[in-house]
Amino acid sequence: MTTTTSCHVDIDENVLAELPAGAKVLAMAPSGTSFWVQTGALGDRGRDMMRGTFESEKTVYLFAPNNVPKPVAWGTYEREPDEHFYICDFFDMTDDLPDIQSFCALVARIHLDSMGKSTRYGFPITTHLANIGNDNSWSDSWETWYARAMKRMLEEEEKSHGPDEKLAILTAGLFEKVIPRLLRPLETGGRHITPCLIHSDLWPGNVKPDAVTDEPIIFDSCCFWGHNEADLGSWRAPRYRLGRSYMKEYHNHIPVSDPVEDWDDRNALRYDLLHSALFPKEPKFRRLAKDEMERLVDKYPGGYEEAYGAQDLV
Predict the structure, then answer these.
(1) How far is residue 298 from each of residues 163, 236, 294, 306, measured CA to CA in Å?
(2) CA count, 13 A, side-chain hemisphere, 60
């Protein structure tokens, strides 16, 4: 059996080769929108984005096959060797928010079912939040992995907006005081967390109801193995329609990690920096990121040592 196409539909030979045997292409039409790609992505970064998307979606699909478009293939166009593509199953979706109960139950189930499948934090390859590559190098510590990922995010942010003296000062406080103060207690003092699979980009553009079943469909993941609460950070942003009601519903399935009192602050920062990196012509996102960093640096000037001292290191 071979894949065939109607004479009026012009599809690259490498795409046709990846379609299921016996498939017949009748027509081709755009569906949905994307800020970052149209029918493909360019250059080395584009190749890495398509490969990362395929491996990421393939991993999420293992834990939610009814709620993730099945990845089919990724590759490079034969006719345009500097352009690359990703293919997955098609779902017809509405532009509504997913039902709060079914969506939060889905995210929690992925987290719970994947806990213990990796003993380390990270991912085998680079994945991308939009076009920003994550540093997914493996680590035994959530604090270490998170700090490394934040360092990469700040490097990309500076490429977008240029150096900033105040941001440099805040960055030092972030790494020396804030990150140890908020993340180290998760894994010290007798407390423990277990890595689980993180989608990492669960904003309203990537979570939609199925147009027929109304079941939540999630896609465009940027996977890594991390602390389960890392998937909630984007829900905290006031500009998104997923909000604290969704976070509360999620925690009906998985309780807030100890120390509970640190929950809001440890989920506060990463997405403002991401948006500042993504939108160089939008200075408001840098202002938002700096404001949040300044709030946290001012709140935790003594860092981990002031709060816990040396006795809480094990």
Answers:
(1) 22, 20, 6, 14
(2) 28
pLDDT digits (tens, 9 = 90+) for 54-78: 999 999 999 999 999 999 999 999 9
Determine the Cα–Cα distance for residues 132 and 130; give it in Å rounded to an integer: 6
Q: Partners of 122 in the beta sheet? A: 225
Contact yes or no for 31/92 (Cβ under 8 A):
no
Beta bridge partner(s), residue 208: 217
- Both tokens of 156, joined, read 């990309």
CA distance 66 to 64: 6
**Global confidence as pTM:** 0.91
**Beta-bridge partners for 42:** 83
What tokens appear for 296 in the block?
């946290």
Summarised one tens digit per residue, pLDDT across range 239-286 is 677 888 999 999 999 999 999 999 999 988 776 777 787 788 888 889
b/e per residue, 195-228, with b = 16+ CB within 10 A? bbbbbbbbbbebbbbbeeeeebbbbbbbbbbbbb
Amino acid (one-letter) located at 37: V
The tokens of 48 are what? Answer: 């890495």
- Residues in the chain, how many? 314
Residue whose C-alpha is closest to residue 270's, from 219, 215, 224 = 224
Single out the residue of 292, 287, 248, 303 nearest to residue 268, CA to CA.
292
Please enumerate in sequence order all residues whose Cβ is within 8 A of that of 175, keeping only pairs 6 or more positions apart, or say none.
Answer: 147, 150, 151
User: Given the DSSP bridges, would you call strands 24-25 and 4-5 parallel, antiparallel or unpaired?
Assistant: parallel
Contacts of 27 (CB under 8 A, 6+ apart): 6, 9
Q: Residue 267 — φ and ψ, nearest 5°?
A: -105, 20
Residues 6 or more apart whose CB falls under 8 angstroms from that of 98 comprise: 207, 208, 209, 216, 217
Q: Which two tokens stand for residue 292?
A: 């949040």
Q: Is the peptide bond before 259 cis (omega within 30 degrees of 0)?
A: yes
